[in-house]
């Protein structure tokens, strides 16, 4: 996993770290049980404060994406974890809402949208 931090994006650095790790977990790039880099190692690689990385890791732990184990490190939680499942469901709903807005703008009927969704679901 390669994190890219932008100092000009306007988004806080800890949010950039958090969002990229969350995306890597949700996409399967980071698997359940996989260890994240240590706080100091990641802070050094990104050239940011250890406190910045700590905040990102702690917020990810609060969301159920990772688990902090004292003295061992930070590990990716299983996608079956209830908090992670709810977050994935929220992401799906947001993406569906965006697709519905686009379909309405293109005057696509609900039945046709349903067929499109089913086709895409089967392709994956």
TrEMBL record:
- This protein's source sits in the domain of life called Bacteria
Q: Which residues form the signal peptide?
A: none
Q: Which Gene3D superfamilies does this UniProt record tie to the protein?
A: Winged helix-like DNA-binding domain superfamily/Winged helix DNA-binding domain
Q: Where is the HTH gntR-type domain?
A: 11-79
Keywords (alphabetical) are: DNA-binding, Transcription, Transcription regulation
- InterPro entries listed in its UniProt record: Tscrpt_reg_HTH_GntR, WH-like_DNA-bd_sf, WH_DNA-bd_sf
List the Gene Ontology MF annotations in alphabetical order: DNA binding; DNA-binding transcription factor activity
The UniProt entry, under Pfam families, shows: GntR
Q: Does the keyword DNA-binding apply?
A: yes
In terms of PANTHER family, this protein maps to: GNTR-FAMILY TRANSCRIPTIONAL REGULATOR, HTH-TYPE TRANSCRIPTIONAL REPRESSOR YTRA
Q: What is this protein called?
A: GntR family transcriptional regulator
Q: Which organism is it from?
A: Bifidobacterium bifidum
